[in-house]
Protein 1
Amino acid sequence: MLPGLLERAGMSERGSITAFYTVLVEGDGTGDPIAEESRGILDGHVVLSRAIAARSHFPAIDVLQSRSRVMDAVVSRTHRKAASFFRELLSRHAETEFLINVGEYKQGGDPLTDRAVESIDELREFLRQSEDEISGFEETVAWMSRLTA
């Protein structure tokens, strides 16, 4: 039943339907059958995080859990590379965060991890946006490209 509902959106010879679906889950949503099936069917999903919101970081989008299956078809190669490296830096920092918090992280062991640790504040600032702040597409892509150069 769920695939039939979700897959109605899109283009056909009779017209097109654009849809934004919302799936509210308890906790982190992993293991929830509706959320998991929706992720498998839809072209993309944006995951909001209570932990990110608790840091007064808005919008509270968990970039590492969010996906777009159509991004490669709609952005330039340069944009795609910058976004991929941006995600890689966020991921590397997330993997190392426990060591950082307990004082066990030692700089110099891995250049990519070092860069992630050094740039995490700038990466997080890039992901924040106040309600009254306006950021254009080209300006945003240029900023991300500078952060990942």
Protein 2
Amino acid sequence: MNFLFVNPKYTTRGEPYEFSLGMAYVSSYLKKGGFNVFCLNTCHCDDTIEEQLFRYINDKHIDVVCTGGMSLYYAHINAILEASKRVKPDIITVVGGPIVTSDPKLVLENMAIDYGIIGEGEETMADLADALCNNKDVRNIDGIAYIRNGELFITDSRSPISDLDALPIPDYEGFGYGYLVNLSAPTSHQIYYTILDEVRPAKIISSRSCPFNCTFCYHPLGKKYRQRSLDNVFEEIDYLVNKYDINLLILMDELFSIDRERMYEFAGRIKKYNIKWIPQLRVSDVDENIINILKDSGAYMISYGIENLSMKILNSMNKKITKYQIEHALELTRKGKVAIQGNILFGDPEETEETINESINWWLNHPEYGLNLCMIVTLPDAPIYRYAIENGLIKNKLQYMKDGFPIINLTKLTGIKFKELCDNVARYPQNEKYITVGKIIHSEKVYQDNNKKSAYSIIIECPECLTQSKYNNMKQESFNKYLLIICRDCHRRLYVRTKDCFPLNYTIINIIIYNAIRMARVIVCNNTAIRSIYNKIGYKCNSLLRSYLFR
């Protein structure tokens, strides 16, 4: 049998997107097992999903289509399933990732899924592939869900993979990772990439899962924390550096600092590569020595799980950290001239006007840290999602997923007060009274890339250290009011006016077209019939329009 792994069409060709490490892991595991595996990255082509699937399914004689991802991408995943069944009605469809693991009953009963993979996908998918190829009974496979004669079957849970070193590195080549790396520009991932003019990024995972139980979070890989050996991790880093010339590494581990000796060893080994990198740390683990060691090894930014500045809300979220630990970690990081990434989340069930004011006032008084303000998104199967179901705040799970998980009021606020909170969270970071704004000294259009997108050279002065830094290869990705960057000297987060960065793109016609595209996306997301039309012609039109806007 021939298996096709399909990466959902998250964006149009020529635009950056998040590379799916999970699917790439499963693909490489099946290839290692000797199965006939093909990969299709729909983000790399202007053709519709159905056109791309028609070619692959017929040319490669595909028997099984595999896809998956987060519940947020329901529409993208569903488009693959429906198109696959239209192209070949008897094709077998397999879906994995959080969308299935969080609620297998919901998705299998409402999507064209023949088999769902629950939890980690490598071993389960290999067992399922073996059963399909050799006509074996699937009932003996742990970690799958399927429907037979209208009845849903969910097999026993599969134990977490204990030896992560036994897994091959993700199938970067199969999904055309080099194309994505070549697309990358300082502005293609907002603040993260602006440290370099010619950025070639990669994200890796050196451990899996998290034993903590934050109420807004969901861990599809279970709660058993497991690590890869550093020798194994650096084999992957060597591959990425040698094949794709990677110069920026984002470590996706949620608990990187839980094993201090391992963290120090990683820092010592990564230093030899002379590349930039970003770890994620718990604020409770940070001290001055850690900051200095990580910075010396090339870590220019640290991502923290902050989430709130009210102890009442931190306790409600089950964060197991304190306000003092947050402030201590942030001050040490800023003192060490390391950039900070962190969010303040609003909308917890225990949220009151008092707790909101506590976090908002703290944020207003600390612009030096540049933390993001966000509303909590209630995703399956996080504890707050179950809370919303139990309290009747989500009445139709399928419709809620189809609608893209809109923000809902879990708090103790009235509807009017909650709307005011949402408005403030969106409004405050757009007000120059509360943010650190970099000064544009000079902006010059330099060249146009292969995707007909203009690149600018921009000199920006940091109001904190007064350093003027030159940022090359800057490309406009949107008409948002501000572009987020990092000062290349003190590493402070700066807001710069997009209009001042890319002045030649700000014509009346361009702005009208861009706003029309944004309105069209809203209509598409909320109308199934229009979405089907968009899937046929929208991606091509969108690609052409964006090429025109940012030329």
Protein 3
Amino acid sequence: MRLLYLGDGEASFEAFPSRKFYNPQQRTHGGYAAALLDSAMGCAIFSRLGKESNFGTIELKVNFVRGIFAETGRLTCTGKVIHFGRRIQTAEARIIDAAGKLYAHGSGTFMVYNE
């Protein structure tokens, strides 16, 4: 996974699925998509918080639309901030291929904690 863009309330990653991420059903494990979605949403939140704040995912919802295979090729995952409160933030993200076909989408809730 590689960061492509980090801006005000938005972040994008690219990833190239491979067989090393396959589950016993010979398709990419769902955790691969979940990690992409969580990373894009988390970085989108981080872009609005700044370096001094700590935060964590407190809820993650993933909708799997179709299977991801090594042959799928380059995937792009873009996350966007939906709500930015003092302690609680929400975001959403989508995983698409080079043709714009949707593979998964999700939403997350994040909490700021300054220790």
Protein 4
Amino acid sequence: MISVRREFENMSVKEVEEKLKEELASRGYKAVLELTPSDIVKDKLREDMPIYRILYICNPKDFYNMTKVDYDIGSFAPCPVLIYEKDGKAYISLSVCEEVVDILKEPFEKVKEAIMAV
């Protein structure tokens, strides 16, 4: 697994997410689906946990081109980016399975650049 993770001590999860979306947009990417598993845990299990968000990041042209290489790429793309709070700090995390690194290399690098620019 190839991963990138950033820690933010002076920004909230909301601030980190807003900044990441701006950086992604400047690179032609956007969140096409957003989930908040921490809300699902609260609703279904009645357990509190710090905010945990998953943004599925996509550039439609890149996705289309990746399907030409491997039509099953949809198991890994759009790229899931985690934004969460742990121990009072905000984090962004992105991981890519080594088996698909060659196919996802360019989108991974662009999303990584956006994460590093936050």
